[in-house]
Each structure stands twice: as C-alpha cells, then as structure tokens.
Amino acid sequence: MDTKSFPSRINSYLVLIPQHLGDVLRLFVALTLFATAACTENKTINQTNPPVSQAGGQTRTSDPDGWGGGSTGDGGGGQGVYCSAAVADARLKDRLIVRDVYEAEFNYKMPMTGHELGPAGTTEVVPESYEFLIKTLSRYYGPMMFFEKVGKLGYWQDFVKAISYIPQGVQLKPSQDANSPMALPTGCELVQIAYWSEASGSQTEGVLFVDQASWKKLDQFNKVALLAHEHFFKRARMAGAKNSDYVREKLGKLFSVEGLPAMFQDWAPSKDPKVKGLLPESSKGFKVCQGIDHSRRGNIVLYQYQDKSERQTLVWSNVRAGDKEMRPFESVFQRIENNFELYNEYAAVTDYLYGRGKAKGVEEKDKLGVSFFDKDLNLTQTGKSILELGESIPGPSFLTFTSEGSISLVNPIYGYVPPEKREILPRETLLNRIYTGALEAFLDNPEKEKVLERTQALQALSVLDKEIDEGQKSGVYPTGFPKWAAAVQGFEKAGLKLSDFERSYLYNLVPTGLYVIKYGYYTYKDVNAVLGRDGFVEMTKPIDELVSVSIDDKKFSYFMTCYSYQQVYYSITHSQAATPQQKEQ
Q1: Residues 582 and 8 sit within 8 Å (Cβ to Cβ)
Q2: What is the β-pairing status of strands 312-321 and 324-325?
Q3: Against a cut of 0.85, is the pTM above it?
C-alpha cells in the first residue's frame, strides 16, 4: 500500500549501522539490555494451574515472565519451543520451533506447510525459503502482493542482512509480549530467539537482536516463520497491539494448509500470463486508488474489481488515521450487487475518483458508466439520489487494536447548484478559459508539441482575435472564420493530429464563443456551449478529499489518486512504469 512507484520501493525497518561504529554500538546495546540475564536463566513460573495442553506432557512452562503480562514494555521479540532428543513425539525431537508455528500445529492441530524446506544447522536463508515465504503471503494478499513490500525478495534479504547477532555469552532478555500461557511436553522449554530493541538511542526503527545459536537450530521453514513474525509484530505494535497473541494466531493460520481467508473474495484472475493473476479478468469498474491525508501520515488503499459473480467488490486496506491503524492481515470489503439500492450511487462516485485523481488512459470500459449529470449538466436520477444522501455515502467499519473506525465516500456533488441558479463567470475569465482551452487542444501532449510550438498557436489565436475585431467593426459576421480556419488547416497539413471533438471545438466552438463573448451579448446557452460547467461559478463546493475515515470522534480526509486497468497492466509488464505510491509500513 513508496513514492511514485507501485510496486513500492524497499524501505526496510532495519537500518544498518555503519560498519565500524556498528560493531561497538551493537555490543554496547546488547550488553546493556541483556547483562542482567547473562548468567542465569529466568524460569519464573506463575503458580496458577495452567490450562491443559493439547500437546500433552507433564511440564508446565509459562511465558518467561510468568503469564506474559499482555503488554509490550519493550520492543517485543520472537520466541520458540525447543524440545530435546528425549521427547517421545518424533515430530519434536531435538527441534526448535517458532512459537507461532508450534501453537498452530500442536495446540490447535493445524497441519503446516513448509516442512519440505531445508533442515537446521545454518545461518543462511536459502532462495527456496524466500520463495516459499512470498508464495505463502500471496495466498492472503493476492493481487495486492504486487504493491506490498513483503512481496519483494529484496525486502526479506535486506531484513536478514540487518539482523544483529548477540555476542557469545550474552543471553537475550525474555520478552513480555505474549499473553497466553503454554503447557509443554516434558523435555520442552520456551526459548527467546529474537528481541527488538526500540530503546532511545538505538536506530530509528530499532534493532533486531537474534541469538545466533538458536537461529541455527531453526530449520528453513521456521526461519522464514520467525522473519514473518518479526515483521508483522512490528506492524502490529505500530497499530497499537499490546501483545503478540493476535499476530501469532494469524501467522499460525497463514502457514497452515488451510491458510488465512484471502483478502480478495471471489477474485477472477486474468488469463493473460504477463500479469500473473495480479489483474482481474474483467476491466469493468477496475480501480486502484491510494488516499493520502493533508499530514501525509494517514493512508488508505481502495481496490475495486468485478468478481466471479459480476458484482463490484471494493476492498479497503492499509488504513492509517492519526496514531491508529488497521490491524495487519485484515481488510474490509463491500460487495455491490447490480440490484443493490446504492449500486448506481457507489458506481458514480468511484468513477468520479478517476477524474479527481487525474488518472490518464482510462477507457470507458474501465468505468461502470454511471453519471451524475446528463449532457446539459443537469442531475441524472443517480445524481439526485446521491444529493439526498447528504455529505457522505456510508462505507464499512474496520478495527484497530484499541478502536473501531468507519470509512465513507465523500459526496462529490454535495452543495450542488441547479442550472437555473448558476452564475456566469466574469467576461475576462470566460475569454481566458476559451484561450486556455484552445491552447490545450493544440498542445495537450508531447506528440503535438513536436508539430506545433506554443508561439505558433498563440500567433494563430491573434489572427482569430483580429478577424473577430474586424468583423465587429464592419458589422459583417465572418462566416466560417476563414483566416482562423486556414491557420488550423495549416497545422493539420503539417502533421497535427486532432480528434473529432478537438476539430469541432477549434473550428466552431472557439471562434463563435470568442465572438459573442467579446461582442458582449451572450446567453447562458452560449457560455454552456463553449465552456460547459467551466463557464459558471462552481456547481458544487470544491472537494479534494473523496474518502473520509472516522475514528475516536475524529475525522480524517484523504485525497485519492487512482490508476486504471491499463496503467496497472503497464506497470506490471514494464518494470520502469510510473505507478502509484504505496505507504510506508
């Protein structure tokens, strides 16, 4: 969900300390944080009777701090369950298993994926393991993986490179981020594998310290499970999580055979092998939009597509508002049936996002084709229905770790002024807008600029001005405006390509509009013919923000930038394509 590139650029949470300073600083921080635990193992056990373990066994091992406390007074860290070779269960013998995986597989009886990956005994994460991790995340993210940094091999490689292994003889401080006790088989114990230091004076995003001996005991599956835990628990803490229970549950399900429910419901992937399922089969109504609030800290992503049942589905993800943020591995969606009461209203508003987001190359087939206005800029029935909704159209609710928020589409025609009450803009403003429109028709893309320079277009407009002035002085209307027409024809003969609308606009609307407005006798109809809504005082109050989020009695507004099916297709198939910005995570 980084600037102007959608896929996002890799900005790791882990910033490498400069080489020479790094060794000294890492050692100092590690010794400071862990000295109290360096000589003796913390075996504090809460005396309350633990729940019965579904894994069986007689030894109750709580979290290292007792019951975990349910609070991250520190940066949190990753734990594992180590079982000796004497354990009866062959699946556990002499193995270190990341806690997320252990709880899912042995406490909740979920079959796991990834067991075919390589064995323990190395610090290296092999390419096949990275590939497995990205593929596993793809089962949840679907097409959003193209826009998420966790879908990039380089992100995870940099993540591993930034790990700081603790000095030999220093023991990791037990984390206090788990709120669920465990009962383990005899011969098994909890082990602190990794620990985030987010203390003041360490790096901006903190330092991930890892016990190298424990890291080597992890097989390849559990190595990538630990990496996922550290990344997503970091995100969860940023969203307000006070313990790791939520993330461990989600990751356990993610790595299970069943997996997490996919973010995209009833997704019908394109059969085009170039896009690798990252686009839907139908482009109708397709939109990818990112919202940024005025502080540039808030963020929201909207993804719209036609699903297998030809319903329009809106997926909202990566919501960040103020200091609150949507929980990781969650999104909210709306399915809009064709017979749904607000179908046309939603369709018209999301189509409107394209124009406000200045997306280019949007073909009509990408849109749902429901308009607010008819050709004379009067409200359609859909427009009238939207106007009755007031300031906004209700959307879905979402959860942070401490609050519930709601999303709504801002009504872009709230405050609409009907045609009979519209005020025509001042005469000089009208003239300037006609001149500007003519220049845009001549020069609105680089291909036209290769044929026609701005000075040539201005000279042609001066010819038209003179032709109009002469006609008004003589009292003879210059039918067909022959001098102006000759200038435009000269440009076309030189290679200037104009659309049918541009030809009609330049040959007819520009000269007739200028004539009547310069003459001073013009009607509402004259202005509407040449300038449309641009010739009048705003029909609606200007709205830049088209999505709002309400949370904790506060409202956050987002300006949306949207991208079409064609743009996303190009960005997928051309690595250097300009694409939307994805939020920092």
Answers
A1: yes
A2: antiparallel
A3: no
